[in-house]
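Researcher: Let's do a round of design. I'm pasting the C-alpha cells now; please hold your answer until I've finished.
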C-alpha cells in the first residue's frame, strides 16, 4: 500500500480522492475539507493538528502520534474501526454525530471519560459488533440502525432520544436517561434497567 504525505491544507472540493488501501499522513498543521470523499488509514504526526472543515469519514485506522490531534471542529465523524480516546487524540467531539459503520468484526469504543453528542451504529447488513470498553455518556441521541450493540456491562447514559431501528443487542441494555427534558424512545427495545 502507498502513503500520501500532506504538509499543509487539503481541500478535495473540486476533485475525487481515491483512498484505495493506502494511508494519508499529515505532517503539518492543516485545515481539511473532504467534500464527501473518504480516507482509508489516516495518520497525524506528533505536534500536528488537523482541523476538519466538514464531515470526515475513515474506513481504516485512525492514528494520532504523540501530541498529534484531530480537531473535529464540531463536524461529524464516521469511522469503520475501533475508537480509543485514550490513545487517539480527538477534540471538539461534543457537538456533532459520531457514526460507527464497520461491516464486520468486533469494534471497541473507549470513551476515556469523554462525552459524545449524538452516536449512531450501522453495519449496513454486515456482521459487526460494537462493544463498549468503558462507560459511554451520550448527551444527545442514541441510534442503532444495524449491527450488534454490546454494552458489555458498562454504564450508558443518554441525554436525548433513543432509536432502535434495526440490528440487535448482545444483552438487554441498561440505560440512564439523564436529560431534564422529555426523551423519545422509538423501536421495540427490552431494557434490563431503565433509569431517568
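Researcher: That's everything. Go ahead.
Model: Designed sequence:
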Amino acid at each position: 500500500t502507498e502513503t500520501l504525505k500532506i504538509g499543509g491544507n487539503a481541500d478535495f472540493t473540486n476533485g475525487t480522492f481515491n483512498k484505495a488501501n493506502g494511508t494519508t499522513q499529515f505532517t503539518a498543521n492543516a485545515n481539511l475539507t473532504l467534500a464527501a470523499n473518504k480516507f482509508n488509514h489516516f495518520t497525524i504526526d506528533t505536534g500536528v493538528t488537523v482541523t476538519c472543515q466538514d464531515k470526515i469519514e475513515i474506513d481504516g485506522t485512525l492514528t494520532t502520534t504523540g501530541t498529534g490531534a484531530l480537531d473535529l471542529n464540531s463536524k461529524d465523524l464516521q469511522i469503520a474501526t475501533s475508537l480509543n480516546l485514550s490513545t487517539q487524540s480527538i477534540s471538539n467531539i461534543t457537538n456533532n454525530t459520531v457514526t460507527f459503520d464497520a461491516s464486520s468484526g468486533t469494534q471497541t469504543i473507549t470513551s476515556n471519560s469523554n462525552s459524545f453528542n449524538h452516536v449512531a451504529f450501522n453495519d449496513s447488513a454486515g456482521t459487526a459488533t460494537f462493544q463498549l470498553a468503558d462507560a459511554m455518556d451520550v448527551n444527545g441521541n442514541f441510534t442503532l440502525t444495524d449491527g450488534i450493540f454490546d454494552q458489555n456491562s458498562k454504564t450508558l447514559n443518554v441525554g436525548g432520544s433513543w432509536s432502535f431501528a434495526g440490528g440487535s443487542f448482545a444483552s438487554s441494555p441498561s440505560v440512564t436517561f439523564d436529560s431534564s427534558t422529555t426523551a423519545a424512545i422509538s423501536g421495540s427495545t427490552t431494557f434490563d434497567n431503565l433509569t431517568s
